[in-house]
Amino acid sequence: MKSKIKIAKKTLINNRRSKYTLPTNTKLYPAQWNWDSAFIALGYSNFNLNYAFKEIETLLSGQWEDGMIPHILFHIKDMNYTPNYKAWSCGKKISSSGITQPPILASVLKLIIERQKFSKKETKKYYPLIFKIKKCLEWFIKYRDPKLTGLISILHPWESGYDNSPLWDKPMSRIKIDTNLSYKRKDNKIVKASQRPLKIDYDRYVTIKNHLRKMKYDPKKLYYKSKFNVVDVGFNSLFLKALKDLDFLLDYINVKNSFLKKYILLNEKKLIKLFNSKKMTFKNKDLKNNSFTEIPSITNFFMLFSDLTNRSINKSLIKSLKKYCKNERYLFPSISPSHKSFEEKRYWRGPVWVNCNWIIYQGLKNKDKKFAEIIRKKTINLVEKKNFREYYSSKSGLGMGAKNFSWSAALYLDFILNR
Ligand code: GLC
Q1: 81-128 pLDDT, tens per residue?
Q2: 166-216 pLDDT, tens per residue?
Q3: Domain boundaries, the chain
Q4: Among the atoms of ligand 1, which is closest to the Cα of residue 36?
Q5: Which of 12, 112, 118, 262: disulfide with 122, CB 3.0–4.6 Å?
């Protein structure tokens, strides 16, 4: 175990460039990714606080003027990624993508400050970071819920972080693929094509992206005009937790925050409505045609992470989660193996992801200690046996995708060093 801790630290250091860390040291992802960096910063905080804060500062340095934190920052103009910085063609100081990713950074920063037991005075030193995160969460409300319904939309499957999840099959099936697409994928040359999204998925990703670009990424228009607009349970759960953690930090340093406090109540009320406790299922809402989809995805259980105040719902969620993984050897499959869309090896359509396990563990540890400990141990065992891979088969434990994957190393450290 000790040597694995060393290797985990080394994996992160090897993937580190001067101010930020790549998701992996292979050519698969040659830039800084938003939620990857948040997990990576948390990993660093277990052994090098300077690196942790540097990672966060660099991510925030790419924040747009309106408050959005892009999902990719292209610090180096590397053409070996599709779509590359030219294809996105945005970001002022730093070239970036024109969409965002789950705002996990707020929760990571709160955890670091809490664990370090920073005093009020010490925490105030980080006000510039906290302020930027506040601006980012306000951006979500302003532009992704302009009618103040209480639920946040995502406008591209890539924004969720679980790119080709079956959650998007229905909304994506209605996207008419542009006829003049010209792009060349590189991902399926580096990793087996059978473990990556399909061509038809990529055609649609690029079609939506091109359309966003055509509208100059104007956030005021995108909510109404984007070809894809989905209220996702998992994303909203991470958002609610981010709001609560930011609220905690603002209270701690005596910064008034009545708007976000109100939105927390509204968001929680509306999120709960997406859980059907009778059927024990969750509903995503497709705002393009006001329809609902119910897919058994592990991301639905991110609701546990948002620490709902309603105890009976938490209980139902845990019961439902136990059922979800009852027959599985390796936890958690990203999609329930009993569902027709499950694919053992294809990316977000079935494999186990360490970041999902970490999110669920954080949600469980103050609600069902015994179950949380099982998740912690099973994740540690899987990673120790199969190394820091991007994802794993829930059936055989087979490691797949990128090797030396940063967030698997970072969160392994966090699982081991922070009970
Ligand atoms: C893929 C994943 C996304 C991740 C990125 C970099 O796009 O789906 O969640 O942030 O790779 O690791």
Answers
A1: 999 999 999 998 999 999 999 999 999 999 999 999 999 999 999 999
A2: 999 999 999 999 999 999 999 999 999 999 999 999 999 999 999 999 999
A3: 2-417
A4: 10
A5: 118
399 Cα–ligand 1 center, Å: 16
Q: Which atom of ligand 1 is closest in space to residue 355's alpha carbon?
A: 9
Taking CA atoms only, the protein residue closest to ligand 1 atom 2 is 161
Q: Which of 352, 293, 5, 380 is nearest to 162 (CA)?
A: 352
Length of the chain: 419
Peptide bond between residue 83 and the one before it cis (omega within 30 degrees of 0): yes
Pick the atom of ligand 1 nearest to 406's CA. Answer: 12
403 alpha carbon – ligand 1 mean position (Å): 14
Q: Whose CA is nearest to atom 3 of ligand 1?
A: 161
Residues pairing with 281 in the sheet:
276
- What's the 387 CA to ligand 1 centre distance in angstroms? 18
Q: Write the pLDDT tens digit of every residue in 296-338.
A: 999 999 999 999 999 999 999 999 999 999 989 999 999 999 9
Residues with CB under 6 A from ligand 1: 23, 29, 33, 35-36, 161, 163
Task: Tell me the CA–centroid distance for residue 29 and ligand 1, in Å.
Answer: 8
Ligand 1 atom 9: the closest Cα is on which residue? Answer: 161
| Residues near 187 by beta carbon (within 8 Å), at least 6 away in sequence | 28, 82, 196
The closest residue, in CA terms, to atom 4 on ligand 1 is: 161
The alpha carbon of 161 and the centre of ligand 1 are apart by a number of angstroms equal to 6
Predicted model pTM: 0.98
> At 152, is the pLDDT very low, low, confident or very high (cuts 50, 70, 90)?
very high
Identify which of 163, 403, 407 to mutate to test ligand 1's pocket (most ligand atoms within 8 A of the CB).
163
The pair of three-digit structure tokens given for residue 17, joined into one six-digit string: 């460039």
Question: Residues with Cβ < 8 Å from 352, sequence gap 6 or more?
Answer: 330, 331, 332, 333, 334, 382, 391, 392, 393, 394
Give the residue numbers marked as catalytic. Answer: 163, 390
Domain 2-417 has CATH 1.50.10.10: yes
